[in-house]
Amino acid sequence: MTGRTIKVVIADDEPLIRAGIRMILTSDPGIEVVAEAPNGREAVELARAHHPDVVLLDIQMPVLDGLSALAELRRAVPQARALILTTFGERENVLRALAEGGAGFLLKDSAPGELIGAVRAAAAGDAYLSPGATRHVVDQLASGREAARGEEARRRVAELSERERGVLALLGEGLSNADAGRRLHMSEATVKTYVSRILAKLECENRVQAALLARDAGL
Fold first, then answer.
1. Would you call 9 exposed, middle or buried from its count of C-beta atoms within 10 A (0-12, 13-18, 19+)?
2. Under a CB-based contact definition with an 8 Å cutoff, are residues 12 and 58 in contact?
3. How far is residue 179's CA from residue 185's CA, in Å, rounded to a whole number?
4. How many helices (H) does the chain have, and how many strands (E)?
5. Contact between 87 and 109 (Cβ < 8 Å)
6. Is the overall model pTM greater than 0.70, yes or no?
7. Cα–Cα nearest to 97, from 126, 65, 123
């Protein structure tokens, strides 16, 4: 996204929340809020009209909730990346958002810099899971049906090269491409190439799904 303004649609049923998010995002000269919606249905229609890079979806909205809107967005405007906004980090919502192909999950009490960083990460094609929800989700996933998930994860990871498994392990730790590169003594661009190859081989939608797979495989 370097050199191009990131277009964003905000969807939340509370006008004050939308105003606050708009104020935070527009403080970054590289981000433009092109439309706002009070419900999921309007969010989908506005995304069709404006072709945004990122759509911020409140999880609880009238007419059409954020998770249902996410499913429609994936069909109607597949190039738009969706970030789910919520005031809580319930496991089921996070898992469904990721399963539906969401670009991430962000708690509404996140710091302004985190919101901007999440939007930039989503626009760049990366996934973002709020630190406030990450440990909760990973720990919950590790507790149930662990054996079956672990066996399947190890089978899939076995198809990767040793270097690819090393990069995947760092994804599981939540490292960015730059941080992983420093750890592995590789350039950020090289790590990005490895990540793309890993996602394709594992048939993962995004980095978060790959990170969860790494955890299940015991990396």
1. buried
2. yes
3. 10
4. 11, 6
5. yes
6. no
7. 65
